[in-house]
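To close the chapter, one final illustration. This time we ask the reader to focus less on the individual chains and more on the assembly as a whole: which components sit near each other, and how the overall shape emerges from the parts.
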Amino acid sequence: MTQIAIVYHSGFGHTDVIANDVARGVAEAGAHATLLRIEAGQTDFDAFFAAIAESDAIVFGSPTYMGTVSAPMKAFMDASAAVYFTKQWKDKLGAAFTVSGSPSGDKLNTLTTLAIFAAQHGMLWIGTGQNPGNNDDTSAATDVENRLGSFIGAMAQAANDSAEVTPKAGDRATGVSLGRRVAEAAARWKAGAREAVAAA
Amino acid sequence: MTQIAIVYHSGFGHTDVIANDVARGVAEAGAHATLLRIEAGQTDFDAFFAAIAESDAIVFGSPTYMGTVSAPMKAFMDASAAVYFTKQWKDKLGAAFTVSGSPSGDKLNTLTTLAIFAAQHGMLWIGTGQNPGNNDDTSAATDVENRLGSFIGAMAQAANDSAEVTPKAGDRATGVSLGRRVAEAAARWKAGAREAVAAA
Amino acid sequence: MTQIAIVYHSGFGHTDVIANDVARGVAEAGAHATLLRIEAGQTDFDAFFAAIAESDAIVFGSPTYMGTVSAPMKAFMDASAAVYFTKQWKDKLGAAFTVSGSPSGDKLNTLTTLAIFAAQHGMLWIGTGQNPGNNDDTSAATDVENRLGSFIGAMAQAANDSAEVTPKAGDRATGVSLGRRVAEAAARWKAGAREAVAAA
Amino acid sequence: MTQIAIVYHSGFGHTDVIANDVARGVAEAGAHATLLRIEAGQTDFDAFFAAIAESDAIVFGSPTYMGTVSAPMKAFMDASAAVYFTKQWKDKLGAAFTVSGSPSGDKLNTLTTLAIFAAQHGMLWIGTGQNPGNNDDTSAATDVENRLGSFIGAMAQAANDSAEVTPKAGDRATGVSLGRRVAEAAARWKAGAREAVAAA
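The assembled structure is written out below.
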């Protein structure tokens, strides 16, 4: 079965919601998701690295704090240096999602930073694959997918409220779709490795 | 009088609206704005460079097309290579605004690209200086400044509609504030040059 | 046979050299490369789009001019908007290379911009997959691959000299390796589509 | 006297070297530098924030780890959220430097991330203001300033060796120049605030 690791940090529970939505999408595509939640102050990631070693794809999730990934997410990234030097994640598939309080709010920098990070590891990258869902200039329709218009990863907006009520339906559905897309691509990529490349 | 050049491209008139809003803010701050509109296919920018030479600050404006500045904007940027080699814009102040159809929509990459471009020219950079204006997760309140949550430059969202009705009031006011902020900073920066640095 | 389109602009021939190196790598991997060279001022890209439609992967190449892709490259990117709206390149593989005069020189912004652009098209992205080749602090060894230390795409440095003598061997070999890597991944990705995803 | 805070993290001493070079440049320009070194695991930055409150400019320094600022640097950045909400650093001047093992090595993403961060705080940004110092394609001349070709901040390359021998002279001189440039600009900016803006 295709294995998808979802490595994420969540400060106030909003990124946790999207992480679980991504996992739901993975399951819908018939793959298995492992949720790896980074805690603030965590420095030992050995169990995470063991789980990732068995995975075909890694989805990275982080709130956007002060313009990029959160410090706990960065602690995980820095801890992966040994894995990087030996290229253990080479040719795994990567993807990302992020959450912040504004519609735009520098979220793109979080996503490109995670794509650059994955490229250092020799991973392939997959984005939302969706056109923007929002066709007016109010962004008021919170139930459409890819409402914020993001491509290199999924974006969600969380109000200053409980994770039970925010992010809204459209952003959550975007997370589900990302999970499904990553799982399907990982399955295809894995299947491709079983065929002789010469046959292409 | 403090002189502010606003160099921009507008494909469908929406960026033109914001450019004029920035100019309004410049005027409100008691400075003079020169609007320099790049046309599609334009290759001769000598008149632009002459106007910019007299300016204390340059505000760059571009729609976000396919993830970054538009091709006509890029034509202007490439044409500035000779100016770059001789550092003619060194120590001028720079700022930027961008417009696209989605709330986020990779607009950040347009703004950071323009900041990188200005840094090549040896310019200083100034952003919106505003906290995000949007406190819920719907972005429905289109009348607040910095509604989209942008800092390194101003963002506006334009619906698939005429420039007479979109971008909405909040995004337009953000443009006015950027113009005012650039003009005030340029005046201060210019005044500082008149004092002996040793006096500091 | 796996088909790889290489779409690029070259101002002074240096990017042309790397484009041909990438094509060589593609051929070494048993795939077919189509070189599509963008000319300055070009506005009609229909023949390019027709060739790309038949391709499994697209490698984008551009000099880094004033901090990002060149204006002719951007003209091609903007012309792809119609292709974007209908998601014609969705699930193709993408990669990039860039050339400029300095070791670093904002080349990264060109590569991330092309990755963002490809993500808008719904493409997957593949980088160099190589650790940095350079182990000292002089960069004097110009014959090692990935000498400049780049991951999300390939970087080459061109001196202010003829394309016959610069970029040097290491940067050219990096281009060959990128071509080989893209071709092998595209073959694998294509083979994966032939298998039932359910089998994964 | 103009006050410059240099906030930085150094993992193996190389960034520490450049931080001290920046401080030397600040002193050469007649201003006062305060070095604030972030330790791994540090969570209390109150003394840092107190020192920064008295400063006219902040220079941020970080190694580039896994594609962006190090985790300890990010911990400092996240801790500044309260300062951000109240815009305490608004209109201070900002700048940055970074160190990594490769000539390019994703260092640009560290610098743009710090510029985005400073923009969130409402700060102005100043870069190296230098043309690239390197005119060949070997980068072998390690004694020239801005050897790596960077603009939005200063880049240094550190070999896998002791901080006593690397980074080399050119990269260290780039740090000195950045310090001098920031101090001179901060003095001018401060002097400008003393004059009536109306006088402009």
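Chain C has one domain: 3-199. The interface with chain B takes residues 65-71, 74-75, 77-78, 80-81, 84, 106, 109, 112-113, 116-117, 119-120 of chain C (CB under 8 Å). With these observations in hand, you are ready for the problems at the end of the chapter.
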